[in-house]
Polysaccharide pyruvyl transferase family protein (Microvirga aerilata), 397 residues
Amino acid sequence: MRNLLSNLTALTAKEPNMYFGPMKRVGVFGTPGSVRLNRRDINGLADIGNNTGNLLFQYSVWSGIQNPKMVVHLGMDYSFVRENIDILVIPAANQVNSDPDFVLGPWADMVERIDRPVVVVGLGAQADDQSDPRIDLAPDTLRLLKVLAERTNYIGVRGPFTAAALACHGIENVVVTGCPSNFINVEDIDGSTIAERLSQLKANGAQCPTYVPGTIEKRVNDLERQLFRIGYAENARIVYQTNLAAMKAIRLHEDVAADEYLRWENKELIPEMSFKRYKDYIEEAGDFYTSAAEWIASLGSNTDFVFGMRAHGCIAAIQGGSFGACVTFDSRTAELFETMQYPRISAQNALACQDINDVVQNVEFDATKFDAARSSLLSSYASIMQSNGVRMSHRGM
């Protein structure tokens, strides 16, 4: 992997004027970082896999690319796409995943039919822990990864665990880039500014906290329950990323299926609370965003501390100039926050926290390590893009 990066760096150093001449036309898979919802439903979230966290890295990639560009999505006329782009850029997520709900055959079909060179950035693996990278993959998932590896010189992955997981399946043309959401705001954020916010929180406490809930899973229910209760005790805002039932309650207020789910969630998280009070709290304190730019700006102005098991909710806070710390509970969150050296709390420490002050005091962050990691990751990210003729606007690129 080190040799691959050395080759990339040498290439871009040798060709500083590589952008002269016609710029390559770029197709970006996903969205520009926002989706529109019908006033009467939230079906538009399907365009981002029903996970608003995807908006963040899609926004970073889309807004950074200076080439002529177009959005590419599943189901398009792939012949038209092939005729109008020179390269396909894919901002990826945790697709290296054994979850049977990840149906990636259509992705592989798209890449094969467009049949253009590919740039992949931010690809991650998901497992319960980082002790064993041998992840069983569905045939369609493995097919997609092979199709991508064949069409790109280098796959940008979130960290060394993902690199090891891919190597187990014979894919070794990888470079660690972290997640592109790390590079949304490279002008105003550095280790010292983040460390200063953490110092203020430790000295003065969190005045306007925001809780970012994960998906309620049996193996982490105790942790989610504790984090919810800490947030509720502070009347914290709640920003959802994937809980469609809660999103329906916030947007539609009356939905039978959503109410049925929320009753179950109520019993899992805080059974002593009445359902009416629980639902009222979700509707009053809950929110979700369909625009990454709006999300980042809102967290930057309306909260001083974001916490929970959602990685991109915490990253959005940092990028917006607030403070966020992810509770790292699986390989996906641990790898990403360790690779990028973002503020984090171990699941074990978070489970022992009794109040918001405990959570703040247990945050791990090293400003020097953050700056070093971000510089290295930005260099890797820039090298992958530049070596494929994709011009980026981020500082240092």
